[in-house]
Amino acid sequence: MKYRWLSLIFACLVVLAGRLAAFGQAGFDDDRVMLQGFYWESYRHGHPDHPEFVDKKWYVIVKELAPEIRAARFNLIWLPPPAYAGGKSAGYNPREYFRLENTYGSFAQHRAMLEALLNEGVEPVADIVINHRDGVGGWAKFKNPDWGLNTICKNDEAFTNTDSEAYGTPENMRGAEEEKPHYASHGGTTYQYGSFRDLDHTNRQVRKDIIRYLLQLKSAGYRGWRYDMVHGYHARHLALYNKRSEPTFSVGEYEWDRHNDERGWIYHSATTPDDLKTASNGFDFTTLWTLKGNKGNYRALFGLGAGGLGLVGDTTHDKPWKQRAVTFLENHDTGYRTLENGLPEKDHEHDTFQNNWEVEQAYAYILTHPGVPTVYWKHYFDWGSDLRWRLKALINARKAAGVHAGSAIHLQDNARQKGVYAARVDGRHGELYVRVGGSDDEWQPSDSQYENYREYARGTGWKVWVKLPGNPEVVQVPLASAFPVPSFKPADQIDVPDHWADPDP
After folding, report:
1. SS3 of residue 296 by DSSP
2. Distances (CA, A) of 248 to 224, 242, 457
3. Distance between CA 246 and CA 312 in Å, rounded?
4. Closest CA to 124 of 66, 78, 64
């Protein structure tokens, strides 16, 4: 009976902490876990050209799985680009921002999916593609919203390629040049993307309509933003967009191999200058590359000794960059993916981690460590029940201990001496112990004089334990409660004052 009461009290505290953490853009000590709610081929579902996929649009599939997503204790779901991008497209060439039907489903299906997720207590995160834009019936013919050539960066290919209807446009009718933020090392400018038109974010009309777009998405049911290709425009613009739209979560995709640049981008994305608590998160590619390149090399997981890899282990300028790290193992741009004809794309013939001990041990690492961890859709739903149950157990252990983005890591040197990785991770509610590699013969918490803990999760060459006050039986973290469903507003009913497009003085 004592254990039952302890578990009940603990469960109430977990629910309260979880609800409090869900408000305010990111902040510090974020304890949420994200699911990437699609993969590259998701847009082909329900399309007559692709009978090899389920005969349902992707939005319908996600809607039907909303209860299972909640049961797994995912807090956030990163969804594909919501804007219209043509008849069959993954969405990364947006054409009409204010049109929220696309290859993933109709607007009604889109809205129904968002409502289902909110009712299950899962926060939808939209993929925001605003670095570039695709024309409607031409290289630079923009519709809904309608923009002129002065919204395109000055040196864009549309002005220099003879196949473009905008070829030879006088420079005084074009937008500004790519910006030159001091944190960018590739030529000192933001990134020029050759496939579509680079947008000039110094243009007030661009900023106003992007703010309107974000507010429309919020009214549809989105609560957070995943910004695509943020190395293509200055972080100060993203800071403005977040300030006006007030997401509960924000993360940007910076260039994959530019760790130091990304750190500078994060710093300058803060809605309150010089306050990292108000900055956007960034995807921690460095942690991914380290895990990928050191499968079975467990000593490498100790990093440089500070605890954590990549952004999670970065303490440059004595700042807690782990508080702004979103960790992951795979996404729609990495690993295996196919062309329209079903054949593997070049450089995408294999997954980053194989469906065995490789992916298990990598998740045992990121789901027990600081940062905001992300689970890939295929790994959870398509790679079999064994992996699904182990991921579910890892998420439950993380939440039971109260591990969050800023949790302290205590590396276990006695495990290093045995050739395996082990750490104690401090949470809000207790302590989590993790071993990656080997067996209990190489390391278990009692080897470091820890006691009064319970086993919470195990798999091939890894195990996780949790210590809670009173040492209750294994706790199943309570399910999330629903979020309010907003009333939808079309873009033409959303007023964005001119001064909203201007940064505060």
Report:
1. coil
2. 5, 9, 30
3. 25
4. 78
DSSP labels, 68-137? HHHHTT--EEE----SB--SS--SSS-SBTT---BTTB-HHHHHHHHHHHHHTT-EEEEEE--SEE--SS
End-to-end, the C-alpha distance of the chain in Å comes to 60
Distance between CA 209 and CA 389 in Å, rounded?
43
Closest CA to 482 of 123, 221, 119, 22: 119
Each residue's pLDDT expressed in tens, for the chain with a length of 505 residues: 444 444 444 444 444 444 433 334 668 999 999 999 999 999 999 999 999 998 999 999 999 999 999 999 999 999 999 999 998 999 999 999 999 999 999 999 999 999 999 999 999 999 999 999 999 989 999 999 999 999 999 999 999 999 999 999 999 999 999 998 888 876 655 666 768 999 999 999 999 999 999 999 999 999 999 999 999 999 999 999 999 999 999 999 998 788 999 999 999 999 999 999 999 999 999 999 999 999 999 999 998 777 889 999 999 999 999 999 999 999 999 999 999 999 999 999 999 999 999 999 999 999 999 999 999 999 999 999 999 999 999 999 999 999 999 999 999 999 999 999 999 999 999 999 999 999 999 999 999 999 999 999 999 999 999 999 999 999 999 999 999 999 999 999 999 999 999 986 5
Token pair, residue 137, equals 């019936």
Task: Find tokens 């505290």 and name the residue.
Answer: 13
Q: Which of 250, 235, 256 is nearest to 281 (CA)?
A: 250
Q: What share of the chain is helix, strand, coil (3-state, %, to 5)?
A: 35, 15, 50
Q: What's the one-letter identity of residue 174?
A: R
Supply 72's token pair: 């797994």
Separation CA 201–CA 196 (nearest Å): 15
State both tokens at 231. 């190395």
The conformation of residue 474, written as its DSSP 8-state character, comes to P
Q: Which amino acid is at 109?
A: Q
Q: How many CB atoms lie within 10 A of CB 351?
A: 19
Q: Is 141 helix (H, G, I), strand (E, B) or coil?
A: coil
Spell out the residues 6+ positions from residue 384 whose beta carbon is closer than 8 angstroms to its own. 355
Q: Cα separations (Å) of 349 from 336, 342, 354, 358?
A: 5, 12, 12, 17
Distance CA 340, CA 167 (A): 31
